[in-house]
Amino acid sequence: MTRLKADSRHSVRFSLNGKSVEGEAEPRMLLSDFLRHQLGATGTHVGCEHGACGACTIVVDGMLTRACLTLAAQVDGCEIKTVEGLAPSADRLGVLQQAFRRNHALQCGFCTAGILMSLDHYLASNPAPTEAEIRDLLSGHLCRCTGYTPIITAALEAAAKLASSKQETSDA
Amino acid sequence: MKPPAFDYLRAESIGDVLEGLAQQGGDARVLAGGQSLMAMLNMRLAKPKLLIDIMRIGELRQIERKGDAVVIGAGVRQADLLAWSDLTEALPLVALALPWVGHMQTRSRGTICGSLAHADPSAEMPLTLVALGGEVFLRDAKRRRRVAAKDFFAGMMLTARADDELIEGISLPVIKGSRFAFREVARRHGDFAIVACAALKTPTGVRLAVGGIADVPTVRDWPRLEGSALDDALNAFAYELGARDDVHATARYRRDLVRMIGRDLIGEVLQ
Amino acid sequence: MVQAAVQSANSVDQGGERPWVGRSIERVEDAALLSGRGRFIDDLGVAPGTLHATILRSPHAHADILSIDTEAAKRLPGVAAVLTGEDVKAVTTTLVVGVKAPVECWPIAMDRVRYVGEPVAVVVATDRARAEDAAELINVEYRPRGAVVDPLGALASGAPVLHDGFPGNLASERTFRYGDPEKAFADAPHRFSIDIRYPRNSCTPIETYGVVASHDAGEDAYEVLANFQGPFSIHTVIARALKVPGNRLRLRTPPDSGGSFGVKQGVFPYIVLIAAAARVAGRPVKWIEDRLEHLAASVSATNRATTLAAAVAADGKILALDWDQVEDCGAHLRAPEPATLYRMHGNMTGAYDIGHVKIRNRVVVTNKTPTGLNRGFGGPQVYFALERLVQRIAIGLGLDPLDVIKRNLIDAGAFPYRTATGALLDSGNYQEAVSRAVAQGRLAELKAKRDEARAQGRLYGIGFTAVVEPSVSNMGYITTVLTAAERRKAGPKNGAQATATVGLDPVGSVTVHVASVPQGQGHRTVLSQVVADVFGLQPKDIRVNTEIDTAKDAWSIASGNYASRFAAAVAGTAKLAAERVAGRLARIAASQLNVEVVDIVFAKGFVASKHNPENRIAFSRVAALSHWSPGSLPDDAGQTIRETMFWTPPELTPPDEDDRINSSLCHGFIFDFCGVEIDRVTLETRIDRYVTMHDCGTILHPGMVNGQIRGGFAQALGAALYEEYAYAEDGSFLTGTLADYLLPTTTEVPEPEIIHMETPSPFTPLGAKGVGEGNCMSTPVCLANAVADALGVADITLPLVPARLAELVRGAEPPPPAGGAAVAPVREGDRRLRGEGQALVKGVPEQVWAMLLDPATLQSVIPGCQRVDKITDTHFRADVTLGIGPVSGRYRADVELFDLDPPRAVSLRGGATGALGFGNAEGRITLAPDGKDGTKLTYSYDAAIGGKVASIGGRLLDGATRVIIDQFFTALARKAGGGAPGGGFSLFALLAKVAGLFGGRR
Ligand SMILES: Cc1cc2nc3c(=O)[nH]c(=O)nc-3n(C[C@@H](O)[C@H](O)[C@H](O)COP(=O)(O)OP(=O)(O)OC[C@H]3O[C@@H](n4cnc5c(N)ncnc54)[C@H](O)[C@@H]3O)c2cc1C
Ligand code: FES
Ligand code: FES
């Protein structure tokens, strides 16, 4: 049993996109703030702090998670994946990201990180989603710029591409 | 919109939780999936002195078939239950209702028991618990008790749980040979229900449970009713629920939904 | 289906020799945004020691501030400063108000609050959480005033007055007359009229406001970084308020901004507030607005009550219009309001050829959030009235609504066409657009579907709208609110200065800067296309910067991202700037290549001779020459290092003596139609097909144009079906979270079928017109028309909440069963809770009476009661902690007893206030012997709760209040019945519980 006192800062360690990171947080510090302001991982955005907009969505231990409804202290020792971990390298985009760019599935890009995380997580276990399934998944995100349909197109296109490249690797 | 200050206790065992609750009582809050509690903390609607995180306690994570019932631990997330392979066979009503709880991104964290503890009158899981006639397992440092679904919900966001009690889990009966139906109307997909209805066939007739109107999910058992007798029964029920107006719906609209959806669902399970 | 439709116009265009403009190239913005490397305001580092601000806001819609006690807050460790209105007043002056009236407009309440969410104090501390801790310790005493939230109600005599300088809440009134409307009405065979209310909503960007400000006391200069979007005319407003000349207010914008849609214009009062806080604290201060603040108090579009009448010929031709508009600008008239009302002034006849127009415009203030820019800006309000009326005319005359639209459209040969109210419509072919849309959008099929659905008893309807979408605002349109005489005195105001700078560096690479402040519209990409075409380069060779720094960049009051001015004005100006540089480069190249200037062409990275393409020189070489060897330039060439172009269209003249105003430069055309089906049980509106035809002139980037259309469509769909800033009659704000203010999601927004036609604008350098706002104007009314058609009703109110439709289409409700619960009639907007009940209590009335009035027992019966002060025998105060379920809070309550009739009856009244809001209640209790040594206690109450908690807990609030009341009386009966030692209860406990339920903390 660990009891962290309210008024002091406590060390929090976890794996962020495969690298171990560490910082200090009061018990009340939200994971979204910890990522952004302690670790400088500002790709995860904050749009509502009540779980409704989805901008802060990340993956914690394989679970889609609203970073704004999670305390930094809660994820000590966990594995976290954020938008910064999506691209295969700094100068290349992943398949999903490319599909977003091709289809103009983002405008201001503020909602985008959360949406990418939901899709990245979902497509990994559902390689052949229907449009209805993607719409259901993304109903947990708000985007004010795009009207959503290009996002759905990008998601379906990426799914098809990922599936066919998987096919190729397994054929080989 | 930042939470007030509190201590954080990462419980490793049920004993840790009960000890924390015993010490702090009403100033402690169990932190489960955080999908309701954290939002309330961010809005500073609640000001606990201690949060007790129960999500690392392995023994609370079980979904177990025990005879004619399924026992679900406090650490079971909504997504875990949805992914449980026996769900449709053992708890078809839950399989129908659970996808209506929030979104994929909130079900992945939110727990079944957290939803019951929170007791939002529009929430789907309390409605399901009441419709099926399940039980809630409560435990404090000294004793354990079981509370029947119908006695658990005391009012809007109020339950029979004492401040120092943990909901250890719940039990839902496996009802064989019945038929189930569920329908919900919300402004948008994933919103809390304006009206949610669950119906099931009972040995003597039919049961209808309605959420979203009264302060607690409410159940009626009827013999096989048809025609105007059914209409009258639904109409009386609709009025008894004491519907109110809010920004999303009027009382009359809510009653209309009970009358119309109630009829549809009853037709479905009795056909 | 989505896929096919999206792909056709949207996928990226890679190949070919064609110009870059007009192609859907990939956006340069995207790689960073897709990998978490965006640079939004909250992503940028701040100076070490920067403090964080939070704002304490009013829970009341209208109240006097009696006192503010900040001592406890100031004492909290980590707190650097607490500012109240007085402190802000000491270092700033009022914001200018857009009409001539003796009123002030402060970014923080002075001695009175006028809307829920109005700033009352600013706390500056080492971090945001601590600042919020301190804000909870501020004790504000209010004396509530009556509130008014309805624009027509605000004009009624006896309505509470918000500002003495706006008698009767009327901030401005003007009447206009164009042609001979009286005669047209007198002569016309038909007159149709409609009363509409356009609701309040907001485009609600996902990124909220942010400001980082610092003050240099030595130079008395401010430096501000804010995700402000323009117009930069507001820079003058801010500088004035901060009491510095413009050159001492350096205003910068971050590289990325998370959407705006007009809304981020409204950050400016907070720039003043946070800058003042930085000055007082002596340190840089950062403030990031949270979502609750944004919903309650950022900015919203105006709501409007309109009566519109038309004089109509027998064939449906509209001969004259008579507008009566009452615009609700909320609690303060903030710059640039009342611009929402005047932005459309030249376009009050829509897409129609109507010669005679009468307009009465009134601007009122109400106890709601002040309004400001929002996508569509005045268009949705106007077209909702006009296009609903067109449908009503058709029904009234037994004509097809589409025929009435066609009969009135401006003739294709009439362009440029001067509208009755002064707009010069640049170009278009509306008839052609309609007929193409009807064919390509398969209207006939939709009609067949409607017939079939109706035959099956389903509710299916079709709606139409024709809309002219103005863009590139004339900075002078707002002066139409003044009379011609007032305008003469104030001096002319007009135009739409755009600026663009093209720079060449020593290696000849090209940089472009514009003052356009994009919020996601991909300006950098489009400009790289435009300039690449001029220089014969590729877009990737052009680096574009769209941040603004008012200390260093070329800008003017028209700069910024609003009024859909980018494609038409800014991109065009960039083209002109590049062409000017290219002209000089051509001269240099001509002298180097020994050819005539007219023979020079820019292509594929070279400057070459047209006749002899082998005779060429690398672009970068020519481009760099000004740096390395200015002496070798031809004499007449001039420098080619950096060129800033200013452009304003001559068509944008000030209003004339007769109040005719060309309010915008360009006018796109939109024709929409849609089929909707309404579920008979839930009355939810489902869009079956939505067709939207756009003629926005030359299309610069098809993917982005469609992106604007889809985005606008989704927001408009929200406005039509889900979104409303709802206020209760008492001014409580009811939609304070994203679970209450409902933005459409993926499961609500279908793909619109987009059809294009291109009629270039003769007035803009690229032939482009604005496109971003049109669907916000056309879609709400198109859906409303379809729903009206489906339901066969005349009056449609937005948003189309199913429960409201139920009232329109459903007959009398089945009555409650005999002897069953009766339903209390409720008035809409009345949020007071009323109830009554009774309990049997042990003890004779005298005993119960003594117990009721004994405050000493209070501490033992109210959980968490900290202190009771007895002010008089019948007046008490207490500090109490109470909660319901997970909600809990501390509050201070105040209770008075009156009309005492011992031991038979007593009335009580009380209230509680705290950071989360306030509650008040009144009740009467009567005691009567039950004939068996007991007492029958009867009670009735009337309670209300408001403030922050009403905004964020609205869905649960009333029920929760009732729970508390009922609980109390149950407990009462139990306690009295069980004769708890020293116990019983007190009236005080009742009121304290009711009022304090969500009364917040102290
Ligand atoms: C965007 C969004 C949409 C949502 N939509 C819906 C919806 O449509 N329907 C719906 O039903 N819900 C909805 N929810 C809420 C739902 O997701 C929550 O999961 C649920 O209400 C609470 O479960 P939790 O595990 O997250 O509990 P927490 O948030 O951790 O806790 C909630 C409350 O229960 C108490 N608690 C939790 N577990 C226990 C326990 N074992 N013993 C004692 N007390 C306990 C906590 O102390 C707290 O007071 C939504 C939430 C979000 C963010
Ligand atoms: S910021 Fe977390 S869901 Fe909106
Ligand atoms: S791209 Fe701007 S909110 Fe989604």
Could you spell the SSE succession of chain B in H and E letters?
Answer: EHEHEEEHHHHHHEEHEEEEEEEHH
Number of helices of chain B: 11
CATH fold-level topology of the largest domain in chain A: Ubiquitin-like (UB roll)
> How many beta strands in the DSSP annotation of chain A?
6
Query: Cofactors and ligands present?
Result: flavin-adenine dinucleotide, FE2/S2 (inorganic) cluster
Shape of chain B: globular
Instruction: Please indicate the percent range of residues of chain A in DSSP E strands (runs of 2 or more).
Output: 15-25%
Straight-line distance between termini of chain B: 51 Å
- The helix fraction of chain A, in percent, is 25-40%
Structural commentary:
Chain A has a five-stranded mixed beta sheet, with helices on both faces. Chain A is built from five helices and six strands; from the N terminus they run E-E-E-H-E-E-E-H-H-H-H. With 172 residues, chain A is α+β, with helices and mostly antiparallel strands. Helices cover 35% and strands 16% of the residues of chain A. In chain A, strand 4 and strand 5 (63-66) form a beta hairpin. Chain A folds into two domains: 10-82, Ubiquitin-like (UB roll), CATH 3.10.20.30; 95-167, DNA polymerase, domain 1, CATH 1.10.150. Chain B has 271 residues and is an alpha+beta fold. Chain C is an alpha+beta fold and 1002 residues long. Classes of the chains: A alpha+beta (172), B alpha+beta (271), C alpha+beta (1002). Strand 1 (2-4) of chain A pairs antiparallel with strand 1 (7-10) of chain B, so a sheet runs across the interface. The structure holds flavin-adenine dinucleotide and FE2/S2 (inorganic) cluster (FES) (2 copies). One FE2/S2 (inorganic) cluster (FES) sits between chains A (106-112, 143-146) and C (206, 259, 520).
